[in-house]
Amino acid sequence: MRDSSIMLSDLELMEYHVKVLFKHDNENRMTVVNEPPYDLAPRIFIGGTKQGYVVRYSNTLKASVVEKLEKFKGTNPGDHLVDVMKDLGIDLPINNLSIGPAYVFPDVISRSCPNAIQVTHENKDLLKDHFRFTFEDFEYKQPCFVIIEEGIPVSICCSARQTSIADEASIFTHENYRGRGYSVEVSNAWAAEVQKRGRIALYSTSWNNFASQSVAKKLKLIQYGTDIHMS
Questions:
Q1: Bridge partners of 166?
Q2: Which residues pair with 156 in a beta bridge?
Q3: How many CB atoms lie within 10 A of CB 171?
Q4: How many CA atoms lie within 13 A of 167 on its CB side?
Q5: Strand 166-173 relative to strand 200-204: parallel, antiparallel, unpaired?
Q6: Rounded Cα gap, residues 58 and 75, in angstroms
Q7: What Cα–Cα distance (Å) separates residue 50 from each residue in 182, 199, 231?
Q8: What pTM value is reported for the model?
Q9: What's the CA gap between 229 and 188, in Å, rounded?
Q10: Nearest to residue 134, comparing CAs of 53, 35, 10?
């Protein structure tokens, strides 16, 4: 089986990315974050690629504010961040701004990950004492893989958010076990399983998260764009 993301453009990947991150209403407006506890979506999402831009508004955004923001349609919204923030601030102040790279995994179906163990309903108690939130929301986090060291799970990769088309990775390794290549192996195992299921394996982070960017580099992920969230 070949990874389906190979045939997709950067702009198509960005469309799938925003749908994985946030639920949408019938008017294609963002409603909530696509994972429990379903917090409100940001007020605006801007996803930039070499082929164009994906812009989504929250369904809570006033029509008058959307009308002001629409003046940037057809241009690179990232070039007008100050003006976008100014228009959003007319309604409510902006408390959070996140900017970072969006990646897609290469085809990793054939890669060997002998130390990664898949977590299923039968053995999910592995997570109970060390990855409590993943354990509690396990129904929404599959597929999930861990690496065991000294009898405990020390590194994990699971689906943070997902749709029927794509999954977004969540990767974490406990501090005392970093630098051993665990994040790379457990993430490749997760991505291989996602791709075997015919879905696209995605990953994103922020520019100030240097550890996550380092993992992305080691995984040889392919950056297809940059996304901006404002709340």
A1: 200
A2: 146, 172
A3: 22
A4: 26
A5: parallel
A6: 20
A7: 32, 23, 25
A8: 0.93
A9: 27
A10: 35
Cβ contacts of 191 within 8 Å, gap of 6 or more: 105, 108, 157, 169, 201
CB 5 within 8 A of CB 197: no
Residues 85-116 as b or e (16 or more Cβ within 10 Å = b): eebbeeeeebeeebbbbbbbbbbbeeeebebb
Of the chain, the percentage scoring pLDDT greater than 70 comes to 97
Give the 3-state secondary structure of residue 18.
helix
Give the helix/strand (H/E) hosting 12.
Answer: helix 10-21
- Distance from C-alpha of 4 to C-alpha of 1, rounded to nearest angstrom: 9
Comparing 86 with 103, which gets the higher pLDDT? 103
Rounded-to-integer distance, Cα 203 and Cα 24, Å:
20
**pLDDT over 70 at 5, yes or no:** no
User: Average pLDDT in the 152-175 region?
Assistant: 97
219 is written with which tokens?
A: 């995984």
66, amino acid identity? V
- The encoded tokens of residue 156 equal 């994990």
| Other beta carbons within 10 Å of 15 | 18
Please confirm whether the linkage preceding 93 is cis (ω < 30° from 0). Answer: no
**Which residues have CB under 8 Å from 47's CB, separation 6+?**
14, 17, 18, 53, 54, 55, 102, 225, 226, 227, 228
